[in-house]
Amino acid sequence: MTMAELSSNLLYVAFVAYLIATFVFGGAVRGNKEGSFKSEGRWGKVAFIVTLIGFLSHLGYFITRWAATGHAPLSNMFEFTTAFGMTLVGGFIVLYLLYKTPVLGMIVLPVALLIIAFASMFPSEVSPLIPALQTNWLAIHVSTVVIAEGILAISAGAGLVYLLKVVDMNKKSKQRFWLEAIMYSLVVVMGFVIASSYFSLTGYQADFTYVNKDGNESSITYNMPPLVGMNEYTSLTEGAMEPFFETPAIINASKITTVLWSFFVGTILYWLIRLVARRRIAAIFKPFVKNVSLQLMDEINYRAVIIGFPLFTLGALIFAMIWAQIAWSRFWGWDPKEVWALITWLFYAAYLHLRLGKGWHGEKSAWLGVVGFAIIMFNLVAVNLIIAGLHSYA
Amino acid sequence: MAEDKKAKKTNRKRNRAFMRLAILSMLVLAIGYTIYNSVTADDVEVLKVGDKAPDFALEDMEGNRHKLSDYKGEGVFLNFWGTWCEPCVKEMPAMDRQYKEYEEQGVHILAVNIAQSDFEVQSFADRFDLSFPIAIDRSKSVMTAYNIRPLPTTVLVNPEGDIQRIVTGEMSEQDIKGFMEEIKPQ
Amino acid sequence: MGKMQCKCGHVNPPGTILCESCGRSLTEEEQNKKLADMRYEGTARRSQTYNKSIIDKIWNFFSSVKVGVSIIVILLIAAAIGTILPQAQYVNVPVRNDATIKAYYADVYGEIGKIYHFLGFHDLYSSAWFILLVGMLAISLIVASLDRFVPLYRSLKNQRVLRHPSFMNKQRIYAEGPAPEDSMQKAEEKLKDLKYKVTLDKNGLLAEKGRFSRWGPYVNHIGLIIFLFGVMLRMMPGFYVDETLWIREGETRAIPDAPGYFLENKNFTMETYTGEGEDAKFEEAIDRVGTVAKNYQTDIVLYQTPEESLPGATDELEEVEEHAIRVNQPLKFDGYAVYQMDFRQNELRAMTFDLTNKETEESLGSLTIDLVSPEKSYDLGNDTRVDLLGYYPDFSGFENGEPQTETPIPNNPGFLVRMFTPETPDGEVSFIVIQNTIEPLGENQYKLTFQNAETRDVSGLTIRKDSTLPILGLGGLIFMIGVAQGMYFNHRRFWIQKQEDGGLVLAGHTNKNWYGLKKDLDQVSEFASLPPYIDQQEEIEKQEKLEKEQKLEGDELS
């Protein structure tokens, strides 16, 4: 077995371990009928040990991949996102050790699973580093950022648990709508994973030529049936479906197609779940969060921000500026990724001031935690894939 | 006693208001100046009229060394040019005519070519039969010192060694004559 | 608003919530609360107390958290808007000016692009209103910090050990009940063990730890202000150098804005990953994405002229060092840094021609024209020579019969030559450009045929000098110290009082991490047999939950 193979096997092990741990955490919480911490603690401990095994295996993936590629495996979408999944679990482990809350694992681990699955949809072969990335700052800057984001995401996890408990799913309200929207968006990510896995397993490919925004002829390969066509496209693959409509040159219709498929599959999946469970997804979790201490969730939410914010400042702003000064000759250039790091930072600064200065505890704080995670994910996914800039490496 | 207290209070109040005013106005000034700077950032030039003309030493095509400070007390008409620049080509003959007129009156012309080959510069000079000295700034160091961007740029140095005028773009013979008058030693 | 005298006799500044001396609630609102508001120790934020003149009003405006957060949120939204379309600096136009950039937005992004440009969002981050917003944030930082720091500092400095019962029982952590005689001494001992600073007064005890963490927010605000000050300085002329230098292999050039320094470009290299040898592991990735750059490098020699030397005199250059400038490895000297930023490959350097007979295609010899320093005449021997009459590096056409050159760069070199051979001793005139020969004075017997060319690369280097970097670095460092101080440490306090009946009253407070506070208290309680404590916040929550459930049951019954 080569180092690279060992590495990807370790990642599988981690994935399976997290999957098992999710259910054991769920069982620990659900089985705790009388609300005593004892029964929760026993199964919680088992689940935690499984999580720990998964995390060590994940760490093993990271180290062996580092050895295989010769650089910190943080240089493309697959590597960064996989590492984000790892630090998310790492953040959970730290806070579990502090607060012993199985319910947090039940929420965080599925999200970590989704993130790892999302990551594996990107090309995962060992890729070389372009000159700008050939420095130790890659490891220093990106690893600090990814750790900080993992911890900040825990804040969202605790916030989500808080909301699942506190939002009344039987009464129509804005809160109910948005909470369900969060659940729906998680299902859409699953839709993306299912759609891309299906089409890549069946080996779907459709080639097109089109006219790009500079007026030149280019070619593109769709990996999903083309719902939307590129600007002035011509199909090269026989039997491929005819796109429903054409888009202007500035839009990458192949990416739009992927997004549409994800929503399509995700929406079907969402309604399937709702039909089977005969209730909203957020309502399915209600019995799991019955015994949750709101105050504890609020404290975890806040604590995670407190630990994550300084790290985020250090990694995403200070280290980033030092590296940018070395590689690009300027510490700040208003590149979209930089701007979104600043936005994330400003957002958490606002969170802290609202909490300390305006007394935004509890539900408000929980919502803010979730929004913060949404901004982080936007910076990770949308800014890399949609907004072109110096940081787009996927 | 009570009055004393009251006086103290008004005093404190006045101090406080003064402090606040001072801090706020300082900040407003700083921000205003920053905005002013950012809005006018593009217009900033390193070299201005009235500045001391940076000294330099260049060798002309004949091998004579020209040091700007040697011309103290006389006017120097410093023309930066290149063979590819059309307006430069156009104004050269006029410059040559005026040079013959003003050379004796203490106005020197030095045409500084921007890092072209000897061959190109020499054939250009031969073609127009130019009589004023031409030097090649091979490392672009004089160009850098004078912060020259567009060509042609003409820097007029007066007898005091200060920059009298900076002209960018083509000059008519009339202009050239006028400029020569400006820097003619009295 | 007047001064507020507490029942204990202490006179508090107007706006105070909790008496500075004994801790009694001073306002009615506060008295009705179950838990005391411990933010800023219940002191008056200075600004709230005076609201008279216009200066006071402006001051109060910037002092408010609401305003501060609003500015942050507006900045955040503005920053996001700037990423919808690329900023003008990242837009690629052949000729850069306002008109072409405007046209670019309209052409590429259509109506949306036009509006975006019209609103000035293409240059959002250096627009006056964006800078104004950042400036307002700076004012808010300074004013709000001053307003809160001063009273907080005073009140923490003058802490009393003995607090009023109403202060004690409104703390989140609270305990009362009988305790053994030696509890106080033992608690003191244990608290000291746990690194608390303990002060005693009559029948009371105050234990305190980590007070410095309370200054964290002010320290990090100072860091931010220093950083913003650095940014402001940077916008003033002369604080930083940002120049571009295009330098060809073999050239020596003055470094712009670095008087007395020269660079010689020895060699430019661009390498790509081959997918073989030690790059074999990357083969799959290279197959997928095509070529991947491995290295951009300019080998340079840095020279300096002696101090008394003048610009223009380059014969006395002294070598300072040799360096390979690569991405991430700039050349550094004297506060300057030179970066590898760009390159152009394969610019013509020299061209070789054969002088051939047009009919027999027989060659009379070859000549190489060095485009950097062409010669007047090239002698091929045997009464054969080629005279160069004119050289036009970037030939663009004729004007009045005279060949023109567009730029000094050899993009399309044209040569006007006169060819002498034994057969044509008077010479034949020919004009040669790439793949074309013009014979202006009639049909020739001979021609110059292009054989091969030598090329060279051009390195695009960026020269930077930034005198504000130390200020920015200092600001960043202080900020980090501030956040670490404020967030990784917390201010924990316990108040214990012995009652006349021998029982104890205990209250605990921390600005964050209640979990840690409780862990400390658990240890002290066990050691000193203190009465069991309750977390009043949790009690309140339980109470509310109970009420809610009862209400639900009630609803179901009815």
Automatic annotation (TrEMBL), chain A:
It holds the Pfam family Cytochrom_C_asm. It is a multi-pass membrane protein. One of its GO terms (biological process) is cytochrome complex assembly. It comes from the Bacteria. It is found in: Membrane. One of its GO terms (cellular component) is plasma membrane. Its main location: membrane. The chain crosses the membrane at residues 6-25, 46-68, 80-98, 103-122, 142-165, 177-199, 259-277, 304-326, 338-354, 366-390. InterPro entries: Cyt_c_assembly, Cyt_c_biogenesis_CcsA, Cyt_c_biogenesis_CcsA/CcmC. GO terms for molecular function: heme binding. Residues 263-391 form the Cytochrome c assembly protein domain. This is C-type cytochrome biogenesis protein CcsB. It comes from Planococcus halotolerans.
Automatic annotation (TrEMBL), chain B:
The chain crosses the membrane at residues 21-39. Signal peptide: none annotated. The keyword Membrane applies. Pfam families: AhpC-TSA. It is found in: Cell envelope. One of its GO terms (molecular function) is oxidoreductase activity. SUPFAM superfamilies: Thioredoxin-like. It comes from the Bacteria. Residues 47-185 form the Thioredoxin domain. This is Thiol-disulfide oxidoreductase. It comes from Planococcus halotolerans.
TrEMBL record, chain C:
Keywords: Cytochrome c-type biogenesis, Membrane, Transmembrane, Transmembrane helix. Residues 65-418, 444-522 form the ResB-like domain. GO terms for cellular component: membrane. The chain crosses the membrane at residues 67-85, 128-150, 218-240, 469-489. InterPro entries: Cyt_c_bgen_Ccs1/CcsB/ResB, ResB-like_domain. It is a multi-pass membrane protein. It comes from the Bacteria. It is found in: Membrane. The keyword Membrane applies. PANTHER family: CYTOCHROME C BIOGENESIS PROTEIN CCS1, CHLOROPLASTIC. This is Cytochrome C biogenesis protein. It comes from Planococcus halotolerans.
